[in-house]
Structure formats: C-alpha cells, structure tokens
Amino acid sequence: MHIIIKAVSVGVHPNPSHNNTTGKVISFMAKQYKLTPQRLQELQEELNYLKTVREREVAEQIKEARAFGDLSENSEYDEAKNEQGKLYSRIAEVEEILANYTIIDESVSATGVNLGSQVKVKDRETGEEETYRIVGSQEADPMNGRISEESPFGRALLGKAIVEIAVVEAP
Questions:
Q1: Mind listing the pLDDT tens digit of every residue in the chain (171 residues)?
Q2: Which of 160, 147, 149 is nearest to 31 (CA)?
Q3: 3, 17, 27, 48: most buried by Cβ count inside 10 Å?
Q4: Distance between CA atoms of residues 145 and 130, nearest Å
Q5: Please, how many CA atoms are within 13 Å of residue 119, restricted to the half-sphere of its CB?
Q6: What kind and span of H or E run contains 13?
Q7: 145's torsion region: left (phi>0), alpha (psi -120 to 50) or beta?
C-alpha cells in the first residue's frame, strides 16, 4: 500500500529525562514504555486500586473458600487462587511499566511525523483518507485511530514530512 501524508499536527518527542521516583536502577536492557501523562496517571491509579481494593477482595475470596473445608476438592478455592495469580501478574506488569517509562512531551513541535503526531493519510490506490495518532505500544488502539509507533504502519510513518509518500506492506 502506498500512502500520502496529508497533514501532521504538532509533533511530540519522548522526554528521556523523566524523573525515576521509584529509587530503582533502570537497566539499559529494559524496554522503555512511551506514555502520555494521562496514561501514566491511569496506570498509577490502576496499580493503587490493584494493591489496595482488589488485593483485599481476592484475599477475602480465598478466606471464604477455605471455610468450605477440604482444599483438595474445593473449586472455589482453586478459582480464588487463580484470581490471585492473575492479580499479582497484572501488578508486576504495571510495576514494570512504571519503572521503565518515558513521558511523551507534547509541547515540542516537529517538522514531520513523530511519536504523538496526529497524521492524516490518503491511500493512493483507493483515495480513502483516514486520521491516526502515533502512540506508544501501551496506548495503541487501532479501532480508534491510535497506531503504535512499533507497528509496521507506525514505523513507515515516523520521520515522514507532509506530502511525503510512505510505503506500507499491509494485507
């Protein structure tokens, strides 16, 4: 597929100097998650909820299931323990993201397509025009016009200027 970039909004750049307030040393091998300030706040709120409200709920489920007696044939206990495993897995995932994130600085302008740019593209074959925002992988939602910078489409658009042609291999 060949597309023409029709318009680009004010671009953004990741801010590599975000303050790591966790006190943890960030490994150079760790993946850097690119987040908008809004997504960062959502993840912080989710982690707080998971570690407080949800963890207590799951602990109560386990306590109630233990009261049913024999744990070897207790499906309620098994289900509660599975839920606890999912909870701890999600907590670890969110903590990993929060320990290794880069904030997208939306105040920096750009001359081409960058992370955070809103891009209007036109398919040269069909003439169809669509608008997308280039975002980090944690915020990608293709059905709502939010394309990951790591996707083939996102990679093809990055760095392109207005009216420049980008070639994208798509099914």
A1: 555 555 555 444 444 444 444 444 444 567 889 888 889 999 999 999 999 999 999 999 999 988 877 777 788 889 999 999 999 999 999 999 999 998 886 655 556 788 888 888 888 888 888 899 888 888 899 899 999 989 998 888 888 887 788 888 766
A2: 149
A3: 3
A4: 8
A5: 38
A6: strand 13-15
A7: left
